[in-house]
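Hmm, how's this folded?
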Amino acid sequence: MQVTEPKVSRVAVAGNVGAASLKAEDFKFIRFRIDGEIARLTLDRPEHNMLNERMLAELAAGIDSLEGRGDVKLIILDSAAQSFCGGIELGEYTPRRAFQVLDAFQRAFTAMLDTAKPLLVVVNGPAFGGGAELAALGDLVVATPRAKFAQPEIKLGVFPPLGAAILPFIVGPKRALELVLTGEVISAEGARNLGLVNRVVTEDKLEATVKEMAGQVTAHSGPVLTMAKKAILNSMGLSLRDGVRQSMAVFLNELSSLEDSSEGLRAIAEKRSPKWKNR
């Protein structure tokens, strides 16, 4: 497949990164490429992918650039380093620069949280602090036995602001409190048991597993994938009754108007594979 460079939306960046827009060709710490229906962002700041302001800005810019691109159905976030991500670089987190770094941090994680496209995170190494929070925001997470997860911020006299908010939704309040208050390290299998990881596979099967999962997702209509994700995430935190109403509203008011929805029903009646138009 032909790999194309996306048009990156303008992102205001605080601090020493500058306020100019970031383009994919200017990225220093994120490898960004689009291959057919898949956009891949690879963390590449050896050797532990410690997050600095520039890297966070690039992550936000890359994800934001994909909004409105109907040709991209899935985002994959992975790592080129030995670690998936070791969290925020301590040298960045000084009292003088704390606001700038936290602003960049919030921009990156908001981009991940708000993207309408399914997000697959691949963890083949330690994911600590902000790295564990990156993984937690994946819609789908694949890990190897090399992966370890921890929120060790409590040991530094702080707490993980995003982890404190999102972990209770994933693992429940009791386990979230334990993870945040103790800073304990958990294995990939332990993370899977908690619901932080979907699949744990050996390193030799990682590439094939990611390819398989990506194929399973991209085989479907892009707009329907977006609506299915919206229905699930928008129902979180609601009562069962309100969650059902929210999901039904998306189904009746948005899904029913899609050409792909009609095509799916026709394909079943005609006993053939659907031909998605992604609209």
Observations:
- Residues 98-114 form the longest helix (17 residues).
- The chain has two domains: 3-218, 222-269.
- DSSP finds ten helices and ten strands in the chain.
- The radius of gyration is 19 Å.
